[in-house]
Amino acid sequence: MNSTIETMLGHRSIRKYTEQPIEQHQLDTIIQAGLAASSSSLLQVVSIIRVTDKDKRQLLAQYAGNQAYVESAAEFLVFCIDYQRHALINPEVQADFAELTLIGAVDSGIMAQNCLLAAESLGLGGVYIGGLRNKVQEVDELLGLPDNTAVLFGMCLGHPDQTPEVKPRLPAHVVIHENQYQSLNLDDIKNYDQSMQSYYANRSSNQKQSSWSQEITAKLSGESRPHILTYLNRKGLIKR
């Protein structure tokens, strides 16, 4: 096993940071790692907004559901789908197809993961902030996003001030299918639920009595940000 794989397997979400800033050369390296990520047809439909303004950070923390680490992290990056520059290059660009929104979301995720892995390889830590979509229109206006551009998620980065445990994942044989989709063995989920119950009960912070099945049921049994489609349509995206 090499150091790259060790970094990947040791991933943990970091939500508490020291006051030490990230050096400019480190941030430059992180961004360059992101820019090196795969891009569908080299469309390069991602923009990153680095938020350094303290007042904006405070508002973004509130919009994300009062997640204080959005404000306290050394760096906060917002990843956006961006077809605006393509439309400016040529007004015949049609960015409102659902496929293009999917490409923007996929490319943003790939770029962001490159950034996070680069940061972790430098001894830094981070966490994704999907909570920006709770108040996505407010975030959009705060950051001054034009048409054909939309907020996807944020990312906190900084020097870790905590050492949380690595959260268990579903076993590979549940996720990997060979040649065709395989039926789920619910015994595998029961075993995984037991692993997650033990993890939640024994982790160093935010202990709780819950299983993975209970957590995903709570998450997926109700509405999930129903305003998102309207927001994307208003930005000129995913209309057809």
From TrEMBL:
Keyword annotations: Flavoprotein, FMN, NADP, Oxidoreductase
Gene: nfsA
PANTHER family registered for this protein in UniProt: OXYGEN-INSENSITIVE NADPH NITROREDUCTASE
Name of the protein in question: Oxygen-insensitive NADPH nitroreductase
Family affiliation: Belongs to the flavin oxidoreductase frp family.
InterPro entries, per database record: Flavin_OxRdtase_Frp (IPR016446), Nitroreductase (IPR029479), Nitroreductase-like (IPR000415)
Nitroreductase domain segment(s): 10-159
Organism: Vibrio algarum
Gene3D superfamilies xrefs: NADH Oxidase
